[in-house]
Amino acid sequence: MRIKIYFSLLLSFIYVPISIDSQTIDSSLWLPKKYSTERISSYDRLGGNDDFIKIPGKGKKVIAEIKGSGVIKHIWITLNSKDPMVRRNTVIRMYWDGETKPSVEVPLGDFFGQGWGEEYILNSALLVVGPKKGKALNSYIPMPYANTAKIEIENESDVEIENFYFYVDYEKWITPPDSDLRFFASWNRTITTPNTKDGRENEWALLGETEKAPLDIKNQFVVLDTKGRGHFIGLNLYVDSPTPMWYGEGDDQIFIDSEKWPPKLHGTGTEDLFNTAWCPKEIFMHPFFGYPRISDSVGWLGRTHLYRFWLESPLAFEKSFKFLLEHGHANALTVDLISVSYWYQNLNFESYVPLPKKEFRQNQPEINYRHIHKWRDAYRKEKGSVWGNE
């Protein structure tokens, strides 16, 4: 059966329609290309096999500085360090067209779809983390620029990155891209608190009647709040839940161009936002959405990673864009939420907020079976019984 996939990828000047069946690729790939293919990599300039650079602790390295017009089409990185949190403690920054503020400023692992400093496989349309067991970080996000492009890596760890390998593959254009939109990515984190009347983490009416959601936007997790003109294309959401209770009753609310509540883009639950249903707890990866990392504890206790890319129809805005997410129904839960947003907009830095230092990016303490057993012991004492629920 012939399946046609029209992949209108983010910007009109890089539109490539692709038709796929089991034997052919029928597309514009055969048309002449009006660019030269270029690369910057960490290959050994002395001809040896030390095809990497070193980045000292508390040090920075510019891995790519490009002059002229073009589009970065692919970035590949792998690294080695004695710091077990090196992926969270290392920051990737990108600057376009001579700007002094970064359009991209995100912990390295989180940018490529790796939460909590971990390593695991990810398969999506724009970000792919491949073998060995998540060692290879790949971005296929197109990143245009008119005059200059710069990519900087900062090692905020105390120890050296002993081996940092990279490719930056790009197209060198004769004329600038026919658009003033540039690629942006930002990192945000909130450890939420319950917005219930008695301060308890109620959900599914386990601790009494579930409260109604307030008809406003107070106390919600802010995924992205930006001013300018552009379109939103993707989201990685890293959820660390301190309770076995389902974390995903929270609705998404997306406000475009300063619209009032309720927004046109009002959702029905976190898993629904990520194109899944009924409280999933299984690894699933599609080009546009998925769960590459799921909780390995009881219920939904612990870490879950969700992603979605709006490639079929990016969320366009002319003046402003605000993306909010409830933490549990009516903001009833304490959850450690981290988002990485991906979007294009004009070079407007009115909403720029610097990335928090590494001390504020560390993981929350793990809650494990020992803590659950202590909870059970307290429950038994309260009930005065052996089993605990007679």
Automatic annotation (TrEMBL):
Record Pfam families: DUF2961 (PF11175)
Family matches, as Gene3D superfamilies: 2.60.120.1390
Full protein name: DUF2961 domain-containing protein
Species this protein is from: Leptospira ognonensis
